[in-house]
Amino acid sequence: MKHVKLFEAFVNEGKVASKTFAMDFSDLVSQIEEEYDFEEDLSTENMLYILGQAWAEVAEQNNFNELMSELTSTYAKFNIKTDSKFMKANLTKEGRSFGENAYGLTGYNLDGMIECFGAAMAEFGLVKPAQWKKMANWIEQEVM
User: Fold this and answer.
1) What's the distance, Cα to Cα, between the start and end of the chain in Å?
2) Given a cut of 90, is residue 28 above it in pLDDT?
């Protein structure tokens, strides 16, 4: 069975599934909201925090350098606020878990990460597309 999974990973390597990534993130948001409180929705700041944690997990799995692993420092550079508190939910754990599970959807590379995380942000209108493009350009410059 392990050989089958390794083969599937090899075949799918480099394929980016940004729509699936965005839908999975949407499902996660719904799950957290339902689990902790039906009347309160996650804020934009909460969702950005979760994506920051997911980014860190995916970057770690890609063996990127430490600068690259911090989407939160990119948020700070662009004056984007995040919030780690939502009821009793552990948003750090939720974000890391999401990143671990969604890692393969990013195509195992920086361009795929940028595409997937941009799609998730666009799904909820968390940042404007032009702003994400600027952020992505800054991230790419940091890597080089």
Assistant:
1) 38
2) yes
